[in-house]
Amino acid sequence: MKLIDTFPTDRIGDLQYCVGRVFPFGATLMEDGVNFSIYSKEAKSCTLLLYHHGQPEPFVEIPFPDRFRIGDVYAMMVFGIQTETTEYGYRFDGEYDPRRGLLFNPKNTLLDPYAKSVSGRSVWGREPDWSRPFQHRGQFIREDFDWEGDKPLEIAPEKLIICEIHVRSFTRHETSGVKYKGTFAGLAEKIPYLKELGVNCVELMPVFEFDEFDNARVYNGTRLMNYWGYSTVNFFSPKAGYAASAPFGMEADELKAMIRQLHRNGIEVILDVVFNHTAEGNEKGPSISFRGIDNRTYYLLTTDGYYINFSGCGNTMNCNNPIVRGMILDCLRYWVSAYHVDGFRFDLAAILSRDENGAPMMNPPLLDSIANDAVLGKSVLIAEAWDAGGLYQVGSFPAFGRWAEWNGKYRDCVRRYIKGDGGCAPELYRRVRGSDDMYRNRGPAASVNYITCHDGFTLYDLVSYNEKHNECNGEGNRDGTDDNYSWNCGVEGDTNDPAVNALRLRQMKNMLTLLLTSRGIPMLLSGDEFANSQHGNNNAYCQDNEISWLDWSLLDKHKDLFDYVRRLIAFRKAHPVLSAPSYDFSPNGTGYPEFSLHGTRAWHIDEHSPGHCFAYLYAEDHLEHGTEEDAFIYVAVNAHWEEHRFTLPVLPASFGWHLAFEAYGFSSDPGKESPCGDSSGIILGPRTAAVLVGRKKGGRRRPATAFNKSKKEVRETK
Length: 718
Prior knowledge:
Layout: E1 10-12, E2 15-19, E3 26-30, E4 33-39, E5 45-52, E6 60-63, E7 69-70, E8 73-79, E9 86-93, E10 96-97, E11 102-103, E12 117-119, E13 137-139, E14 162-165, H1 167-172, H2 184-189, H3 191-197, E15 201-204, E16 208-210, E17 217-219, E18 222-224, E19 232-238, H4 251-264, E20 268-273, H5 290-298, H6 322-339, E21 343-346, H7 365-371, E22 380-383, E23 404-406, H8 408-419, H9 425-432, H10 436-439, E24 447-450, H11 459-462, H12 498-517, E25 521-525, H13 554-557, H14 559-574, E26 595-598, E27 613-620, H15 622-625, E28 631-638, E29 644-647, E30 655-662, E31 666-667, E32 674-675, E33 681-684, E34 688-696, H16 711-717
Parallel strand pairs: 14-15, 14-25, 15-20, 20-21, 21-22, 22-23, 23-24, 24-25
Antiparallel strand pairs: 1-2, 2-8, 3-4, 4-8, 5-6, 5-9, 7-8, 10-11, 12-13, 16-19, 17-18, 26-27, 27-28, 28-34, 29-33, 30-31, 30-32, 30-34
């Protein structure tokens, strides 16, 4: 028997309706009907509004009878809706008293926080009809995508090699060579490139629905947009403007198809999520959704009703409120189950540890719940462990055994050292071995190591500019950080000086060499592998133009750099000792410590003194790490402006040194390294790094029993 024969109790026009189901929240397609469920603790009444697609006025308004409210949830089943051509929203009535944080206004039509699709911005950059008061409307989607057996990949976190990508920037440039530029489909067309590069995870900057016209303006003839999307309109719906098929209502399927194709090619998908604030801004911001539904539940407020601003964006979500916590968990579960997302990076995640008064909590229930959730049990969880209110938790973020962190200390230390600050050498020794001083009880995979990300200079700009150049953002060059630890190598900006350009190339290779041979999870900024530039802009949040778009013609110009990065990634994959998940650096089956530090003389280094030269050695036990043979990996770094000779550690008798990488211009594929003529030492030119591999010259592998001793036994026999 169809539901329509049983349930309807009321009628309005051609539609019938009845009391709905409380769970799940949102608009859920049922047999013959749609179940609407929405929470508001302090509203006095709620009305459902249905619109024909694009029409300014609703074709029907259905007040929720009081008997349709269960607790603080309004639930209604409506039959007869043409879901393909209908949009919806809500109106809430209640007290209006801003000084008490009550902002109910029955004239405002509001977006469902649980809407799975949002209309109004289906074509990126198309000027909206500003006379329409209800800009962002809920739409209905069918969860019938054919995944063809796909599921999240569940790659071990320590094996991840992440590439951070802005969906639109990645393929919008005319040189991208894709059909659907700036879209999910366009990114899918670039999967062969990502496979060639070798990354196995993409971290997408925000893809939840946001409004690119938020704070849009014209400056010096250029239209500035809300380009990055760190101001969420809705947490459950994909950014329609990123989908070529959005005008046909297919944005969800386009995103799912992209994820399915990435998974088929062994590439995970992490989403950058922004739960710390919303697009509604401060007291002067628009009422889009949350503030008109239950302002005091969703936001941190002062005692006189003003928004607390730990996000730097006008408001702060009340993340540890049980209702908000439940919404965030529902959202994450939805993206994992419905979109097969592999993990999340949480923007300004320190906010997620604050209580309703804004104070940091010792055991934040939201972070605990996420870490121990059944559905999220295999998801990658990465925190940006600070916020705009001064809470800095890098190394101390409440991890609950699960959370990793963007390691900003790694970023700053590598930048400082490579530009010539030898004073940070003792810290760098810690960073390259996985920041064991910070994550001793969590393991190296708690550290997401990076040198550049969307927020700041690109790698090329890091070695080309001493100062930021954000004048085109229209804020008097006051925006963006001044703490860049950059060095322009002698000339500000682009130059034709071959010596300067050669030095810049070496400096980029030096930093990438450290990044991809350090313990922890490495993350690259897309485009760094071919020296993409933002022309000195270190805060391109508003630039929907060539400043932000990746210029793919640079791939040919900097093919040497691309090959260097590609081979470094392949090298990291070929040598699992580089990504081992523990801090056990004691001697292993090779007879050598698994990790050791060296000066220009092998085995001699003062780990507490400044210096411009150092080296580190990994000893890869083939039994422990599952490789065919033992290997030794020696990374030498000369950040000095003079050349230095490094004496090499003596290898077992049957082994010899081979050159794998040298920042002056040499790189090789794994297994094709060049034998070193002098096995006693290597001379490194000014400001350069090199990677050597010690492997067998030939002959039989040692008997396996020689490797079966415990590390304690090996230590005792040395």
